[in-house]
UniProtKB/TrEMBL annotation:
Belongs to the NAD(P)-dependent epimerase/dehydratase family. Dihydroflavonol-4-reductase subfamily. The keyword Hydrolase does not apply. It comes from the Bacteria. This is Dihydroflavonol-4-reductase. PANTHER family: NAD DEPENDENT EPIMERASE/DEHYDRATASE (PTHR10366), STEROL-4-ALPHA-CARBOXYLATE 3-DEHYDROGENASE, DECARBOXYLATING (PTHR10366:SF564). Keywords: Oxidoreductase.
Amino acid sequence: MELVFDQNKPVLVTGATGYVAGWIIERLLTLGLTVHAAVRNPSDVKKIAHLDALAKKHAGNIRYFKADLLNNGDYDEAMKGCQVVFHTASPFVLNVQDPQKDLVDPAVLGTRNVLESVNRCPSVERVVLTSSCAAIYGDNIDVANTPNNILTEEIWNTSSSLQHNPYSYSKTLAEAEAWKMAEAQNHWRLVVINPSLVIGPGINPNATSESFNLVRQFGDGRAKMGVPKFYIGVVDVRDVADAHVRAAFLPNAQGRHILSGHDTNLAEMAACLLPKFGNSYPIPKRILPKWLVWLVGPLADKTFTREIIRRNVNIPWHADNSKSRRELGLIYRSLNDSMNEFFEQLVQSGQLNAKK
């Protein structure tokens, strides 16, 4: 599949210091493109050091622009002359005090502000939106109500709310807003990427994504007693980046795309780490029974409510990734490689300490 792009026209990446954005920028620089990186504070040298290092290694260039998701018009300057906008900026945090302020507003208002800038920018031909499988389903129990018990791009999350799964609710509202705005105009095309849980090493080893927190728990002792059989889809961050670039530059790319390399669960993810790291780190080996998780889960983690446990633990999860393979040409990395390379990065960056 041949990518079609103009090397003389820049591209914009919102949320440029983020986990997924880092690998997208790496791919774009490899293609020799100029990346307009929108960040909240371009003068924070530590926050952008990993991106500067990328630019030194590849053919493309980076220009930084100050922009805030909640400020209308902040992306106008960064977007000038761009052929594609990659809108990746959206918080992925689970433990928040105010879901409306901390999750929904940045996701929905941020998407609206970015796309209003696109409407004012005649050079933009395509927008690639980083959505999520969270916009397709809220809990594993929802999968049982789908045709053939499998998630597809036609399905939307209808079970999440501000009170239950507010992160999923924010992703659903944000993507819906993007489609509404896309359908109201005719000068740019929207292509959406819907990843499941993103794992794998980051360009920045100290990224703040919840994915890092989850995998750290497999090695820092918090999960040494075992993990629940919580089924989930996972996908490597590098595959997600490849999908974004293909969604931007394959002429016929359109619509939503489920990105999920593996239907798995927490126990299988942990088991991938045992051969290499099991002797040195407290990798969980046991599956906790649902009744025990029901009793102690909410005490250990306030976001792990009994409603979450009831609707997800021991309930299978399946998604159809055939569109991403067929139309974007994706070949997914193995779960074993993704988990081990991710864990190795956490070790090498000093985030995990071996058992004495």
